[in-house]
Amino acid sequence: MTWTVFAVAIFNAMLINNVILKQFLGICPFLGVSKKSSSAVGMGAAVTFVMVIASFVTYAIYSYVLVPYGIEYISTIAFILVIASLVQLVEMILKKFSKPLYKSLGIYLPLITTNCAILGVAEGNISNIYTNYGSSGMWLAVFTALGTALGFTLIIFAFSSVREKLESSNVPDAWKGVPISLVVAGIMSIAFLGLQGIL
Amino acid sequence: MLTITLEALIVPLFVLGGMGLLLGLGLAYAADVLKVEIDARIEKVIELLPGFNCGACGYPGCAGFGEGIVEGEVEQLSLCKPGKDSDYNAIMEYLKSTPGPDGKIVEVKK
Ligand code: SF4
Q: N or C, which end of chain B is more exposed by having fewer CB within 10 Å?
């Protein structure tokens, strides 16, 4: 596989099939941790870390353990196991090295475990890449995960910046807070529809 | 008739069990390397909070609020909306009776 394949995979996963705005995965942290752009970026970094490593490990486990033994049906449990452990690890690392970030992420940090975007990418890699390339698609899977995670970070950062501006703008009372944010999210999603069909 | 071979039962068990064991050991090791000292009172106060993680207090969850209390950033316990008087009293009593590692006592209002 050449580099163009990887570049296309990243571009496609990041912008065209954006996890949040196109596949509607990972909405919980998208709404929960987007009040401040600093914590949004922190969340993006944590998700990136977990997503990339989880994709690598789950792809390896799937192709070298589950398939040879013919037990592909336990993939969901096995993947969740890997993801949960990685999130624990991230939590410990953040607690040790970045207390303020740990605090601002709060309950949303352990909730990355149940962030459907991560399991979604791991399972999507299996159904889209493994079925076509077998175990040699590993790197493609990792790059897809990287692109997805970058897309997640980009969107959550953009959204949080808009929300910060909204804080100080004159919004009708009934629309203050979450309602106007949801409208913004909807408009962003429509805007990203414009990228359909580029590739 | 549905036949289940012994192998079909045991292999997944061993695979998952083995993965769990490996990951668990890895985490135990990481927990040891990345240990941080925290004020023992924080955990106790978090336990005494309602535990809904609803965020009404302005923190992203009960853990944040509990830490805020012990570190003295929280002015009023009643910021925790789902909390009852009995919860507030239990926390105030506990904090009154337990000095921190530096011997100081945290004071909060209801
Ligand atoms: S308001 Fe109370 S119950 Fe809700 S998150 Fe804060 S401390 Fe927990």
A: N
Q: Which of B15, B36, B64 sits opposite A69 (nearest CB)?
A: B15
Which amino acid belongs to residue A152?
F
Note whether B45 and B76 are same-domain residues: yes
Query: What is the count of structural domains for chain B?
Result: 2
Name chain A contacts of B55, Cβ cutoff 8 Å.
107
Residue A53, token pair as written in the block: 């490593």
Q: Which domain holds residue B18?
A: 7-36
- Interface pTM (ipTM) of the complex? 0.71
What residues pair up with B76 in beta bridges, in sequence order? B109
Count chain A–chain B contacts defined by CB atoms under 8 A.
59
| A21-45: b (≥16 Cβ within 10 Å) or e | bbbebbeebbbbbbbebebbbbbbb
Looking up tokens 């993680």 gives B53
